[in-house]
Amino acid sequence: MTLSTSATAPAPATLDPASLDVTRIRALRGPNYWRLAPVIACDVRLGALEGVTSAELEGFTERLLDALPTLRAHPCSRGSAGGFVERLERGTHLPHILEHVALELQSLAGGEVHFGRVVPSGEAGMSWVIVEYEEEPVGIESMQEAARLVRACIAGAPYDTVAVTRRLRRLHENSRLGPSTAAIVEEARRRGIPVRRLNSRSLVQLGLGRNLRRIQATVTDLTSLIGAEIAQNKEDTRRVLEHVGLPTPQGGVADTLDEALALASRIGYPVIVKPLNLNHGRGISDRIDTPELLREAWRVSSELAEQRTASPRLIVETFAEGRDHRVLVVNGCVVACAERVPAHVVGDGVRSVRALIAAANQDPRRGRGHAKVLTYLPCDGPTEEYLAHRGLTLDSVTPAGETVFLRATANLSTGGTSIDRTDEMHPDNVTACEMAAGVVGLDVAGIDVLTPNISVPFRENGAVIIEVNAGPGIRMHTHPSEGTPRNVAAPIVDMLFAPGQPTSVPVIAVTGTNGKTTTTRLIAHLFRHTGVTVGFTTTDGVYLGNRLVIEGDMTGPFSANVILSNPTVDVAVLETARGGLLRGGLGFEQCDVGVVLNVTADHLGLRGIHTVEQLADVKGVVAAVTKREGHAVLNADDPLVYRMRERTGADVALFSTRPAGQNPDFEAHLERGGIGARIEEDTFVLHRGRLRIPIAAVRDVPLMLGGAAAFQMQNVLAAILAAYVRGMRYDDIRAGLLTFFPSPALTPGRLNVLHLGQRRVIVDYAHNAAAVTGLVEFAGRLEARRRIAVVTAPGDRRDEDL
């Protein structure tokens, strides 16, 4: 397919394409305001193009469809692609066009993306364009290129779509997880195990906190470093296997060509030469029958080893005949076996080897590297050299039906194919391969065996184990060219997480306009009081136990990752503020308890949030991502918060500060057997339907300051519910409440009462109208002859809020 722009008819001179200004392109890596999954979001300002449609731009639709003809057929998020073309012809606005172009470019790069939205930001002249993404770099680059392409189509300027598409495909291939890692991640997600990508390659975390495990392809955090070192050194591997009587080729290590010649003479020709510690079959020679061939093979292999910064020492060993098999051993058990066939083509008596390779590479299953089920067949210098040893060239035409091999080794990374042989393995061979993995010391091992027939015991047909591989690729087992696919990711995940073993830790997310930090700290204190290690994040910083580990406003995805990626954490309590959620999305996919305290006017006018209702939609994301088997703890007195019960699939637990009988919604919830908490007769009381459990008297809870700090009621009730729904005993909740004091040590800057002689100074973080009101009411309840207030407000507030 050729993509290009015709770019013949210029746009109206009065319309400057540069008016289309796309800024703040960012990846939201978790659930967010727009979607409960990752998206690319950007701000779009149109300037002079505001209100202009595609129908008003002469030639625009033709130029766009010429550049991206697949827009005519690619599915989109709303209706059929044909419908989008019709809208282009009738006239649609530029932000919607950007949305579709960005999605289409990602699709051409190899992604499967469909969701897109254009949302008014509430700010004059600006919209948000939101599209899903699979790979973050591809999503961001596609949005940037979409803007360039649309500007080019407005101006009638040239745009090289072919080059852009090629670059995006390379970026997609380089960004995506490798096939082995992807298979394990897919299996983990099927089981509901949290997955977190830790770098731009294949380092991945499965699970959270104390129960997390890490993988990189099939190397796990259980993989023995010594085992991997032995596997990396082919000579060490051979010696270890020999020591337990497993069949290996005869041979040794040579530092010089003379040593290699002497070694070959001693063990007898034919032999092969291979680098001591290269993988993927690199540097392994073809069969060597004479000293002259050995000299040439030594030169080629040693040069390759030096290029790869590998050891210059080479192995010379007996040439073993047989079909190449890879046996996968996981946790001491054989789980799959594949016969690997070197890259090859089959002659037809008409076409050259070069033409046969080109035709085979048209197979849609083939791609670069590990991007697809099969890798492109090689047509390069090593291919020409290999063919030359057999008296062939790339231009040779071979008889119909004759197999022409292109490589000596059968690695999939050089175009090889695989045939599943799992069910054909002889039980004795299964035992031998399991022994090989065990003596090398690998949890996941790929055993390379040369044997004429895997169903015959090794000792009966001269089979040999030629290598043991750490971190073996599993694509040949999950997607064999022939035979039964094997879900070998399942036993790897079984090894990492034994049946019944937890894969996560309790995650409690706390949001709201006021009280988040105090509630977060109180919940963390309640759990810490039971002896577990609690990691929590607040506006003050990230804490592990009671130790501050990172200082600053830590209420976004970065700080959540710090806690959830720490293998010492038993419980995570995460203050979740609107800023981090809008900038980068949530730092987690799901939580066990989602606490929403209240929604009042604060930070309005920032990042496109202009109304309290919009602010409630932002904070409601926490309720929406609460697990179905978890609990959403909601304020029954706040209509915006109470309405969030409609967004969550979790059980709802309500709290209310109103006296009994004064909140009909709360009363109805208890009548239905729901969980709730409120104050009755100056006592914090838990309810489970008709069951009533007094927790502690208001005056005895230090945070309430004798009952004067009425605004703390919500925080205490929410914390009680969060602890209760996570199974904490009543006595432990009570003990935790009675030992949590509003002080610079436990609640720095939150209702700290300092005694200076006869005077008291109250320090509080109150920074919006509702918080200041609560603080002033609290001061009014304290006995004093005189009260002085010093009020500050952040500068990022609207004038009316100040």
Structure at a glance:
Helix content is 33%, strand content 22%.
Structural features, described:
- There is one protein chain.
- The two termini are 59 Å apart.
- Helix 3 packs across helix 5 (161-175) and helix 17 packs across helix 24 (730-738).
- Mean pLDDT is 90; it is low at 1-13 and 75-81.
- Helix content is 33%, strand content 22%.
- It contains 25 helices and 33 strands.
- It is globular and about 105 Å long.
- An eleven-stranded mixed beta sheet has the order 24-23-22-25-21-26-27-28-29-30-31, with helices on both faces. The chain has a five-stranded antiparallel beta sheet with strand order 18-13-12-19-20.
- It is of the alpha+beta class and 802 residues long.
- Strand 6 (203-206) and strand 7 form a beta hairpin.
- The longest helix has 20 residues, at 136-155.
Fold blueprint:
Elements lengths: L20 E8 L10 E7 L14 H8 L13 H10 L3 H16 L6 E5 L5 E7 L3 H20 L5 H15 L3 H12 L4 E3 L5 E4 L6 E4 L2 E2 L4 H8 L1 H10 L7 E4 L2 H11 L3 E5 L15 H17 L6 E5 L4 E8 L2 E9 L2 E3 L6 H8 L5 E2 L6 E2 L5 H8 L14 E3 L11 E4 L6 H14 L3 E8 L6 H4 L2 E7 L4 H4 L10 H8 L10 E5 L4 H13 L5 E4 L3 E4 L2 E5 L5 H8 L6 E5 L2 H7 L6 E6 L15 H13 L1 E10 L3 H4 L8 E6 L7 H8 L3 E5 L3 E6 L2 E7 L14 H14 L4 H9 L13 E5 L2 E5 L5 H13 L21
Helix pairs in contact: 1-4, 3-4, 3-5, 4-5, 6-16, 9-10, 17-23, 17-24
Provide the descriptors you would attach to this structure in a database record.
single chain; alpha+beta; eleven-stranded mixed sheet; 25 helices; 33 strands; disordered N terminus
